[in-house]
């Protein structure tokens, strides 16, 4: 007690409050609570940290999993790409192996072909040796004679020398499509032209002296001089033709286009007219030249045709007809070439080429019916297959010969533009059917690259459906083949062409019966039996959209109503559409032919006179002249002329000038453009891939000389035209006798057999040039 008292007293003294017991407890409680709070905070902090660590770990884990997944997917995609690349490489290796096998088999075939060719060459060599020995004997005799003539040549006068030159052998170039130029050896050209000039100089004294003494720039044998002389010859030929056309007064233009070997679009321009210069009046279709086209639109072609006709000296006011194919650019009724020309010259009647029209009948007839179309496709593949190599042709030829069939070249290829090609191909296929089947069967048994294709083709033709379709198509198209050839004739007028087409149409229509089909079925059955094919028909279903499905009683009845009748109906309808009667007033002149004069009604007569009124020499008396013409022939009981050309030939037309004019214009109207097609054949013979850089002017000149070989050229006129420029270093004079240089030999080699030099005097000019007097 005393101690506590003292402490309290001391606290009072020190101004301190006494510390009670309950106060210590509170302090401890506060401290404890603080510590507990701090502990809780620490625990919560630790817990939150652990949760954050856990979240972070989970996030890292998820990231690692995503990375693993991406890595696995990437590896998987890489492996797939590698597998694909490996498969591609494997496929490429297989393709290479297949290609190598095909190349190996091709080499084997080529080797076999080479062996066959080598055997043929050996036979040819043996044959040539025998011929060579015979020729050597003849050459020795000829050489002795030539040496004897050469020894005597120095003692012969110039006049005698000219006679020997005239009797020499000529080597025409252009009519035989021999190239003028050749390869270059250094600075000189080793061409055919120079070769034959040098050959001729061996026995032509004037030519030899000219080549030895003339300056190098005045020899006049260069390609430029060749082109000038070719152009001069072409102008002379064209001038002769233009005079004939102008004498006939009225003419018709024919035009067509085709690509040459260099890719240039060449338009052939021809003219149809009635020629009266010779004793026999005839219709002429003459080629005048080619015209390169920068564009193939109607405006360009129209301008080219009219400009060329004017350039050549023809008066387009006398243009009375146009003949083109059926392309929309040429035949368009709104802005085609024929429409544009007709706007300028209303009486220039357009005619769609009848040969093209007939060819379209065949093409559409063979392509619109599915069964016929498929059969024609199979036959075309057969033709291509046997035309691919010489070995296949030889195999087919040998099999045909063994079976007693005609030894022909094979199966001609089809073409949509070559007239008559389908009929020829069908005929050859039907004729050689058993041989084709046998050869394909033999090739199928062989282990070659073509075995599969031969098997496919054999199975394609080994059905009765294909056999009877080919037989039927061959029969029907055979009726039109003579008409195809007849339409290519020049002396054919438009009405006769229509009449012949209608006659063929009627003949085909008359075959639409059992009697017309029975021979086809019997022939097809015989062919099928020869290759062990049973005549059968396809099954008939309830609904069929892509082939005929008429219910029938027998195989013969099935193909008669499902194939034969539809094909004939299609052909006759095409002929009716493309060879229907025209309402052109110009064609009414056909009723002036005595055989058809009864059909000339009063209404037709008025339209006829109205159309030809501006062309008639005496238009005011046309009606009276027609009445006299009618009276002249209606009272005749004998055979009357059946064509306009025959009428003009056998009738005295001096008393009927108006009718003569109308008939001539009628004959001038175009029928076909076959003359243009013939000029394209000449173009392909002249401008080959070895002469693909030939200019259009040279091509036209060579084509004119090649096509018009019968036109006689005046050598003097050609050289006068060539010398007209006045820039020649050689002296030419035309005073009574023709003084020519060695260029006459150029004309000889250009291909005119009538051009022969007759040299009389040879004297050098002061300038070193050569003057040759004839």
Fold and architecture overview:
It is built from 27 helices and 11 strands. The protein has 774 residues and is of the alpha+beta class. A hairpin with a 6-residue loop joins strand 4 (265-275) and strand 5. Helix 7 (298-311) packs across helix 9, helix 10 (354-367) runs antiparallel to helix 19 (555-578) and helix 13 crosses helix 16. The protein is extended. Residues 148-172, 735-743 and 748-774 have low confidence and may be disordered.
Keywords for this structure?
disordered C terminus, alpha+beta, extended, 27 helices, four-stranded antiparallel beta sheet, 61% helix, 11 strands, 774 residues, five-stranded mixed beta sheet
Summarize the entry for a quick read.
The protein is an alpha+beta fold and 774 residues long. The chain has helices at residues 2-13, 21-153, 158-166, 192-201, 205-213, 223-248, 298-311, 328-331, 337-344, 354-367, 370-387, 390-402, 421-431, 433-445, 451-461, 464-486, 494-510, 514-530, 555-578, 602-612, 622-634, 644-650, 657-668, 674-686, 696-707, 715-723, 743-750, and strands at residues 183-185, 188-190, 251-259, 265-275, 282-292, 319-324, 349-352, 733-735, 737-740, 761-764, 770-773.
């Amino acid at each position: 007690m005393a101690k506590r008292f003292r402490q309290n007293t001391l606290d009072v003294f020190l101004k301190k409050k006494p510390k009670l017991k309950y106060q210590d407890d509170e302090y401890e409680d506060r401290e404890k609570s603080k510590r507990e709070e701090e502990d809780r905070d620490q625990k919560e902090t630790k817990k939150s940290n652990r949760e954050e660590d856990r979240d972070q770990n989970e996030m890292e884990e998820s990231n690692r999993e995503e990375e693993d997944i991406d890595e696995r997917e990437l590896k998987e995609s890489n492996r797939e790409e590698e597998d694909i690349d490996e498969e591609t490489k494997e496929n490429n290796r297989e393709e290479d192996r297949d290609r190598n096998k095909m190349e190996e088999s091709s080499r084997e075939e080529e080797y076999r072909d080479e062996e066959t060719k080598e055997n043929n060459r050996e036979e040819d060599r043996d044959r040539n040796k025998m011929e060579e020995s015979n020729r050597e004997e003849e050459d020795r005799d000829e050489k002795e004679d030539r040496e004897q003539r050469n020894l005597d040549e120095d003692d012969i006068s110039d006049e005698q020398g000219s006679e020997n030159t005239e009797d020499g052998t000529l080597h025409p170039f252009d009519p035989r499509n021999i190239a003028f130029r050749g390869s270059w050896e250094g600075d000189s050209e080793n061409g055919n032209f120079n070769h034959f000039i040098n050959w001729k100089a061996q026995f032509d004294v004037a030519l030899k002296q000219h080549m030895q003494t003339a300056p190098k720039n005045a020899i006049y044998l260069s390609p430029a001089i060749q082109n000038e002389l070719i152009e001069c010859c072409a102008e002379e030929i064209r001038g002769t033709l233009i005079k004939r056309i102008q004498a006939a007064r009225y003419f018709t233009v024919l035009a067509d286009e085709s690509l040459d070997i260099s890719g240039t679009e060449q338009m052939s321009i021809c003219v149809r007219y009635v020629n009266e210069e010779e004793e026999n009046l005839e219709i002429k279709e003459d080629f005048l030249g080619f015209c390169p086209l920068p564009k193939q639109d109607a405006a360009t072609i129209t301008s080219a045709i009219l400009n060329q006709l004017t350039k050549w000296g023809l008066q387009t006011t006398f243009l009375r007809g146009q003949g083109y194919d059926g392309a929309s650019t040429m035949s368009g009724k709104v802005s085609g070439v024929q429409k544009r020309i007709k706007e300028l010259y209303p009486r220039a009647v357009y005619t769609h080429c009848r040969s093209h029209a007939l060819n379209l009948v065949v093409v559409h007839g063979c392509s619109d019916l599915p069964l016929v179309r498929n059969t024609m496709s199979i036959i075309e593949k057969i033709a291509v297959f046997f035309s691919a190599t010489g070995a296949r042709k030889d195999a087919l030829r040998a099999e045909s010969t063994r079976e007693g069939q005609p030894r022909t070249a094979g199966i001609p290829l089809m073409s949509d533009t070559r007239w008559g090609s389908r009929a020829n191909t069908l005929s050859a296929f039907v004729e050689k059917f058993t041989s084709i089947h046998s050869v394909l069967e033999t090739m199928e048994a062989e282990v070659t690259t073509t075995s599969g294709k031969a098997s496919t083709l054999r199975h394609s033709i080994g059905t009765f459906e294909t056999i009877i379709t080919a037989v039927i198509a061959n029969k029907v198209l055979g009726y039109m083949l003579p008409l195809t050839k007849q339409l290519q004739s020049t002396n054919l007028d438009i009405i006769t062409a229509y009449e012949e087409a209608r006659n063929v149409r009627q003949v085909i229509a008359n075959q639409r019966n059992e009697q017309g089909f029975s021979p086809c079925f019997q022939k097809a059955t015989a062919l099928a039996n020869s290759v062990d094919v049973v005549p059968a028909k396809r099954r008939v279903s309830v609904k069929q959209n892509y082939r005929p499905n008429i219910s029938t009683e027998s195989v013969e009845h099935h193909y008669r109503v499902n194939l034969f009748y539809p094909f004939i109906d299609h052909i006759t309808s095409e002929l009716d559409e493309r060879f229907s009667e025209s309402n052109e007033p110009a064609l009414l002149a056909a009723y002036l032919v005595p055989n058809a004069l009864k059909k000339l009604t009063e209404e037709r007569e008025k339209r006829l006179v109205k159309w030809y009124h501006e062309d008639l020499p005496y238009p005011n008396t046309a009606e009276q002249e027609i009445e006299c013409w009618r009276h002249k022939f209606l009272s005749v009981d004998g055979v009357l002329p059946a064509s306009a050309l025959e009428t003009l030939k056998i009738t005295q037309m001096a008393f009927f000038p108006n009718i003569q004019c109308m008939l001539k214009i009628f004959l001038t109207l175009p029928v076909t453009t076959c003359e243009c097609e013939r000029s394209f054949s000449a173009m392909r013979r002249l401008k080959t891939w070895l002469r693909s850089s030939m200019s259009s002017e040279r091509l036209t000149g060579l084509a004119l000389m090649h096509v018009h070989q019968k036109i006689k050229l005046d050598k003097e006129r050609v050289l006068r035209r060539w010398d007209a420029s006045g820039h020649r270093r050689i002296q030419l004079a035309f005073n009574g006798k023709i003084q020519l240089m060695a260029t006459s030999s150029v004309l000889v080699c250009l291909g005119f057999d009538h051009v022969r030099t007759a040299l009389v005097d040879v004297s050098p000019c002061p300038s070193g040039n050569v003057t040759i007097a004839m």
